[in-house]
């Protein structure tokens, strides 16, 4: 990758995960002002260290580990401000949040795969209802079906997706 592609790749990853990074840091600090400061510092450190990032590995756990160190540095530098959280608690919260992010990532990957396995008509129905937030009545009108039929179809598709995702997650944890 040349420098421009590298920069674009970094910006794409950072913007894609910015909300989760903010949420992670906020979960550790519990203060919006401090979180904004630490997110800004974390972004700078991520930029400086991006050459060390292995693109074969997930971005978010790497970013979380850097964010955790930035939170700890912030706590150390602001000890006199009488914060409620100590470093040990921050470490515990960080580990739990990272595990949860990993579980969410696994869930999202499984859901993506399960969605791709659905018939095109079911994919379209899911897209209209949940990605485009179209009301059931509107979908029913477009497809010339009753709202009740659409609701039942969506229920069945959701159940099918839930079973598929659960199966994939079980397979993933055993493999």
Helix percentage range? over 70%
> Mind describing the biggest β-sheet?
none
Discrete helix count: 7
Average pLDDT level:
85
Please state the CA-atom Rg, rounded to the nearest Å. Answer: 21 Å
What is the H/E string? HHHHHHH
Shape: elongated
CATH architecture of the largest domain: Orthogonal Bundle
- Gap from first CA to last CA: 32 Å
The CATH top-level class label of the largest domain: Mainly Alpha
CATH fold field value of the largest domain: Rna Polymerase Sigma Factor, Chain: A
Number-wise, the strands total: 0
In terms of structural class, how would the helical and strand content be classed? mainly alpha
* Low-confidence sequence ranges: none
Into which percentage range does the β-strand content fall? under 5%
- Give the domain tally: 2
Provide the CATH superfamily of the largest domain. Answer: RNA polymerase sigma factor, region 2, helix turn helix motif
Fold and architecture overview:
The chain has 175 residues and is an all-alpha fold. The chain has two domains: 1-104, Rna Polymerase Sigma Factor, Chain: A (Orthogonal Bundle), CATH 1.10.1740; 118-175, Arc Repressor Mutant, subunit A (Orthogonal Bundle), CATH 1.10.10. 82% of the residues lie in helices and 0% in strands. It is built from seven helices and no strands. Helix 2 (32-49) packs across helix 3 and helix 6 packs across helix 7 (147-174). It starts with a helix and ends with a helix. Keywords: Sigma factor, Transcription, Transcription regulation. Residues 110-161 form the RNA polymerase sigma factor 70 region 4 type domain. GO terms for molecular function: DNA binding; sigma factor activity. This is RNA polymerase sigma factor SigM.
């Amino acid at each position: 990758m040349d420098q421009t592609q590298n920069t674009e790749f970094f910006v794409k990853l950072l913007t894609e995960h910015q909300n989760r990074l903010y949420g992670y840091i906020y979960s550790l600090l519990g203060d919006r002002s401090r979180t904004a400061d630490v997110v800004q510092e974390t972004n700078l450190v991520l930029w400086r260290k991006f050459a060390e990032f292995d693109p074969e590995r997930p971005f978010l756990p790497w970013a979380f580990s850097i964010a955790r160190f930035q939170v700890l540095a912030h706590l150390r530098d602001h000890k006199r401000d009488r914060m409620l959280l100590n470093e040990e608690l921050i470490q515990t919260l960080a580990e739990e949040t990272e595990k949860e992010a990993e579980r969410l990532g696994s869930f999202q990957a499984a859901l993506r795969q399960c969605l791709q396995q659905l018939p095109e008509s079911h994919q379209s129905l899911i897209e209209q209802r949940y990605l485009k937030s179209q009301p059931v009545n509107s979908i029913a009108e477009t497809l010339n079906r009753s709202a009740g039929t659409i609701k039942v179809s969506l229920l069945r598709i959701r159940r099918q997706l839930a079973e598929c995702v659960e199966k994939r997650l079980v397979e993933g944890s055993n493999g």
